[in-house]
Amino acid sequence: MAAHGLPPSLSRLLFAVKYGSLQSRCCALHSKAQYSTVHNPGEKTFDKILIANRGEIACRVIKTCKKMGIQTVAVHSDVDSSAVHAKMADEAVCVGPAPTSKSYLNMDAIMDAIRATGAQAVHPGYGFLSENKEFAKRLAAEGVAFIGPDTHAIQAMGDKIESKLIAKAAKVNTIPGFDGVVETVEEAVKIAQEIGYPVMIKASAGGGGKGMRISWNDEETREGFRFSSQEAASSFGDDRLLIEKYIDNPRHIEIQVLADKHGNALWLNERECSIQRRNQKVVEEAPSTFLDPETRRLMGEQAVQLAKAVQYSSAGTVEFLVDSKKNFYFLEMNTRLQVEHPITECITGLDLVEQMIRVAKGYQLHHKQEDIPINGWAIESRVYDPYKSFGLPSIGRLSQYQEPLNLSNVRVDSGIQEGSDISIYYDPMISKLVTYGATRAEALAKMEDALDNYVIRGVTHNIPLLREIITHPRFISGDISTNFLPEVYPDGFKGHQLEADKRRELLASAAALYITAQLRRQHLCVELGDGRHAMEVTKSGDVFTVEVDGGTVEVSGQWNLASPLLPLTINGSHRMLQFQLRVLSKLAAELNSYMPEKVPEDTSSILRSPMPGTIVAVSVKPGDTVAAGQEICVIEAMKMQNSLTAVKQAKVKSVHCKPGETVGEGDLLVELE
Q: Start and end of every ATP-grasp domain (predicted)?
């Protein structure tokens, strides 16, 4: 039984009525930022499709299926039984417990779900089984269509070594490197020395930043080999590695391709994906500010050459590294729907999920290359990690959640709602926030507004970082590379640093809000960061006058105390604010000064878990002597491994964790003497 005693089918129906009407309204309001599903009722595809995925991408596929009149089946783990995608589908089947290996990667359970529901086709989304040739083979053996390329293309492009050889043969530019599997640590060091540092160590079967390390010397090669092989085995079940020359300070630009089973293939322009953290994309845009029409054409033609070389049929993405002179080199091909596909849909008007479904049924492409436009500009911000030095993953429950769909030309692809849990078991992405404009400036301005109007409470998130990126002068000018974040924030992102006038405006607004709630005049103290700011607030009509930090600020607006968003006029300028500040009366502030301050914990002698996760390895035992910087243990969270090290030389006093153990943020792992 579902929550409140409702049967699952009725619960899904009520959810669909509520959620479906909301989506219809949003699509009507923001049609310019949406893909166009031009469904031909006479073109029969499938009666029922199972989506072998979860979260936002499962919801994305379900939306197109509904427009095409196709019934949908969701699969879910036991902890996802109330997830949005499970409620949104016509049917939902539990395929196992929370760990992905026992649920979303559990082929036997998913095959059972296909048989039980009579699904005729499977859309794998991205990640999980989307590039697993064995899964595609099992579907084919039972006469179930795989909405993606055939097994030959998956295998050929999924293996980094084989794909590079095929790319070379197809006359696609490739990065210099070793064209084979690196078997041992010492072999890795030898090959790296021969290629010349820096080098990139990466998983042969990898993708999404998993199993990738940059190495600048022999020691980093040894460490990178170990971590890359462990992450590759954990994420892909394949620990084979390759090594190639690392192109320093490049751009990461990819080409979207679309091909059918009749030999037709198109390139749907590029996506600029250079803003990255740990090889994972943060902000993407289409088109790129860097490419001229000739370079775009050459990259597109090479991408199509590669697709045709493996008889590719479906939507896929060919990724390139591009240097400062516009030389471009093949990086990899993702044989699936890409996370950032919405920005391509915005500038072309094509529904890529619909195209994948049509191709899987055997239809030819409707379009020719000359039909593919670049209409306007689209930007995507991935909303997820907090900004603890660019983000250790965050988990928790969304206590308040409000997407900025009141704005025009805004699209939000999400699979969560207020009350949803962000779990340690899955990718921590909350949503993909997409804005569209006739020009890049218009799309950027809309993104700034959308980020300001996005309400997320209960978990930490990266919206402050995203806003800093899209308003940074370097980003606005297009002066970016894959090193943008470490160059702009070498010590990690610490949050927006307020200038004096903006700090006064924020403090004054908080004070005005407080007075509105209290309905009286006061002398107040507002805490911002580590500082306390005394102020005097007076009200005349609808305007609050606040004396703070030697300046005067006038604040007015409609004070809806029930809303998390406050549109205010501050010194004549319009602002959209969200408040999470502490406001004290003058007396409370005076009394608070007598409270004893909490003494910070001495972290030099203890190691606590910086995030929830699973202990992968413990490298020390009581009595061992460790050096500063020496690895103590490795913790895995959201499919990424993190090495935790000693901050000083000391003897290990006690160890409080063991491999395979699940730990929470702040749990004590190791004590040093």
A: 166-361
Question: What pLDDT digit, counting tens, does each position of 427-484 carry?
Answer: 888 999 999 999 999 999 999 999 999 999 988 899 999 999 999 999 999 999 999 9
pTM, 2 dp: 0.77
User: What's the DSSP call for residue 350?
Assistant: B
Q: What is the gyration radius of the CA atoms in the chain, in angstroms?
A: 26
Active-site residue, 336 included:
yes
Sort residue 209 into left (φ over 0), alpha (ψ -120 to 50) or beta. Answer: left
Structure tokens at 274: 């250079």
Distance of alpha carbon 127 from alpha carbon 293, whole angstroms = 32
Phi, then psi, of 222 in degrees rounded to 5: -60, -45
Sheet with strand 613-618: strands edge to edge: 640-645, 631-637, 613-618, 662-663
3-state secondary structure of 336: coil
DSSP annotation string for 476-513: HHT---TTHHHHH-TT--------HHHHHHHHHHHHHH
Using alpha carbons, select from 90, 95, 55, 45 the residue that is nearest to residue 72. 90
CA distance to 240, 509, 511, 562, 572, per residue, from 556 (Å): 62, 9, 12, 17, 9
Q: Are 197 and 215 in contact (CB under 8 A)?
A: yes
* Most confident range, picked from 304-318, 380-394, 634-648: 304-318
The pair phi, psi for residue 108, each rounded to 5°, is: -60, -45
Tell me which of 138, 271, 336, 358 is the catalytic residue: 336
